[in-house]
Write a structure and sequence with these properties.
By secondary structure, this protein is an alpha/beta fold. It has twelve helices and 13 strands. It folds into two domains: 158 residues, NAD(P)-binding Rossmann-like Domain (Rossmann fold, 3-Layer(aba) Sandwich); 171 residues, Glycogen Phosphorylase B (Rossmann fold), CATH 3.40.50. Strand 1, helix 1 and strand 2 form a beta-alpha-beta unit. The termini are close together.
């Protein structure tokens, strides 16, 4: 059953920070572009957005309000996506007091402060999971709450395919948050082991914390390009590398894998670890490789570097698979409509 009349616009109270940086933030940009004509979106932000983001929101008819303005209308649905300290703002309590259903999407693999208490108090009307692996982590906490799996969607228009047949040097790289938990302990030596000849290693995003974590290693400028957050737009960075080799820290589990899909869309071949949702984003041996250990990372990455015909075949396959299967706009929109309109 839909919670608004045909022909009218559902008021969507959106909590989350649209931005070109970060998985949850870029997800909101894609969401707004998909739904601004269907919903009346009010984006509640803790501070004034940068001019370029304010212009983007305005061009998509999104109203900008402060947290203290909620609810701007005593109707509609509240959607909160990966908002730090959201359950300490008092917004969930206000939503319940005004009988506005709260749909919550955590996006991470750990609970936010106050999240479990909010569940116990009945403040969350529906929880959205990104993947089955994320659902398994939280299902006991949310066993009494309505739930859905709503996959991420990446707009293929922003991540155009690049034919890499004759490019030199061949480049191995990765794009992620500059969180040391996302990097394996042996990251520098493992990455250098991926090189078979004269390949370049290119990383975004790098940080002082990561530099301190690996201060024991010398990053030769002849081999490494270490870029800070935002040094290049994600699409241009991913178009500049050939193999997206993505080993992860042993204490971190990837709930989806947005940067992996973005890389695939550009024709970058992913080499990813097992035990994450990443392995569900590709077909092993066709559109990428799934690794059980470090030896697999070295084997598959070196094979791609050495065999141009194999690389080109898998590059095209990765781009096609990500567009046709993973980035299916119609399927994703149907899930969001069900999540926000059916109660």
């Amino acid at each position: 059953m839909s919670n608004f009349l045909p022909g009218s616009k559902l008021t969507l109270h959106l909590f989350g920070n649209p931005s070109p940086l970060g998985g949850a933030s870029t997800k909101l940009i894609d969401f707004i572009q998909s739904f601004y004509k269907r919903y009346r979106i009010i984006n509640y932000l803790p501070r004034t957005p940068p001019d370029d983001m304010a212009a983007f929101l305005s061009s998509h008819d999104v109203e900008i309000k402060q947290y203290s303005d909620f609810p701007a209308q005593n109707e509609g649905v509240c959607l909160a996506v990966c908002v730090d300290k959201f359950f300490e703002t008092g917004i969930p309590q206000k939503a319940r007091d005004h009988r506005i259903p709260l749909v919550w999407s955590n996006e991470m693999m750990w609970l936010f402060p106050g999240e479990e208490d909010a569940v116990k108090c009945g403040l969350i009307s529906k929880v959205l999971y990104l993947s089955p692996i994320q659902k398994r982590v939280f299902q006991n906490v949310y066993k009494s709450v309505s739930s859905m799996i709503v996959d991420n969607y990446v707009n293929p228009a922003y991540f155009k395919f690049v034919d890499r047949g004759s490019r030199e040097p061949f480049t191995i790289g990765r794009l992620s948050r500059p969180d040391p938990l996302k990097y394996p302990i042996n990251f520098p030596t493992l990455y250098e082991s991926l090189i078979s000849k004269s390949e370049r290693l290119k990383i975004q995003s790098w940080s002082s914390d990561l530099a301190a974590e690996y201060s024991w290693h010398y990053f030769s400028p002849d081999r490494w390009v270490l870029q800070e957050v935002g040094a290049e737009p994600a699409n241009l960075f991913l178009q500049s590398i050939d193999v997206f080799s993505y080993p992860l820290g042993h204490r971190f589990i990837e709930s989806w894998g947005r940067s992996t899909v973005e890389a695939m869309l550009t024709g970058c071949v992913p080499v990813v670890p097992s035990g994450h949702h990443l392995e569900n984003l590709l077909v092993h041996g066709e559109s990428g490789f799934v690794c059980q250990n470090d030896d697999d990372f070295i084997k598959w990455t070196r094979e791609l570097c050495a065999d141009v015909s194999l690389f080109m075949k898998m590059s095209r396959s990765a781009a096609q698979y990500s567009r046709d299967v993973i980035c299916n706009s119609e399927a994703n929109c149907r899930l969001w409509i069900q999540a926000l309109e059916e109660w």
